[in-house]
Every structure is written in structure tokens, then in C-alpha cells.
Amino acid sequence: MSLVPILSQSFEPQSESCESPIVFVVDGVASERHSLELLISCNGWHSELFSSAEEFLSHPSAPVPNCLILEVSQGHNGLELQKKLAVERPEMPMILITPHCDVRMAVEAIKAGAIEFLTKPFVHDLLLTAIKQSLERSRLALARQAEMRALKECYATLTHRERQVMALVASGRLNKEVGGELGISEITVKAHRGKMMQKMKADSLVDLVRMASSLGISHASLDARRTFDAGVHFAAAVANAP
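The chain above was modelled as a monomer; its predicted structure follows.
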């Protein structure tokens, strides 16, 4: 891979930040790995190189935006490697490059989730565009994961009653209806609702509904939980009966 054409031009260099992205490269040929490393570094990204998928999989996941450039070939059963990596690292965007012009392989790779499938020799700007798109996709995925972790942590602080109130309020019940459903007063519902909103850091009902949807919480799930709990209690009563 000749890098002469790209040394005199740039492709929107990336600025340094606290979450500097990483471009992982898996290629069995050392010269190809280092050519890709030079291409990547010339455009402001950090790269880490691996000679095999197995070596890469032994490396821990990166907590920053990242993507993988995977060299595949028919001889090394590249699509199987892609599928294995997709299982091990489902959140990681992949760019596949190959020395073979194989339409069937390209179609299968894209269907399996590859961002891009490039045949050597390829135009460098195509790879750089794919890297940029992959890193942005990774950044968004990491942001969603962080938001979900924070949401689950907030939900874990709720009491059982506050979770019941949340499910009913998020399903559209009024305070009076929630009280009737749970057998408590409207004043008590308001107290639980206030604490629940505070713990969930929800500024409005719209926020709460969105959070409940993300967590998979609904009135139906509450009913299912009640049915399960009732079944457990009934089974325990039967087992303890003389």
C-alpha cells in the first residue's frame, strides 16, 4: 500500500481530547499493518496493531470511541473471523479490507454489520471516511451505554413501592388511580412520586416515560411481577402446609 499520495494532504485531522479514539488494525502482514498505521496517524488518530484476530480478542475492550480494520481473505476464512469478532465485540464497528474482488463476500460482510468492505488497492479517502463514520458510531454507542448504566444505577436506589409508583405513573395513571391500584392514599402516592422523581433525576413526566421505556418498565411488567410473586407465595404456602 503506497502512502505517497496522502503524505501531502490531510483528511480533517482529529483534535486531541480526553477520550482519544483508537483504530485497531488486524492484518497478518507486518508491512500492511505499518502502512495502515502511518495512514491512520497522518490523519490524527491513534492506532493499535495486531497480527491476528485471536491476538486482538485477548486485548481488553477500549472505553473510548474505537473501530476495527480487519484484513480478510478467502484463505483465512475472513467472514468467519468477522462473525466471531461480532459476537465477542458487538458494539465495535468494523471495516473489512481484502486483496480479493469478491462480490458475494462483500455482500455477506455488509449484511453481517461491516461499515465498509474495501478491495485492495483502494482509494485512501474511502477508508478514512469509513473510519470517521465508525468512530462516530462508536462514540454514540458508548454514550448510550453510559446513559443506560446511569439510569440503572438510579433505578436501583428506588424502593419496591417507588418502583410500583413509577411503573403506574409512566403508564399514564393519575395519582388517585395509582392510589386505588396500590391501596394507598393519594397523599402517600404524591410522597412516593416526589422521592422517585428525585432519585431518577427526572425533570418531567416526559422524562420519566422515556426512562421507563428505556428500562423496559410498564404496567404490564408490574402485573407480571405481581403474578410471579403471588405464585411464589402460593407455592411456599403449599409447601409449608401440614
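The chain has two domains: 19-147, 157-227.
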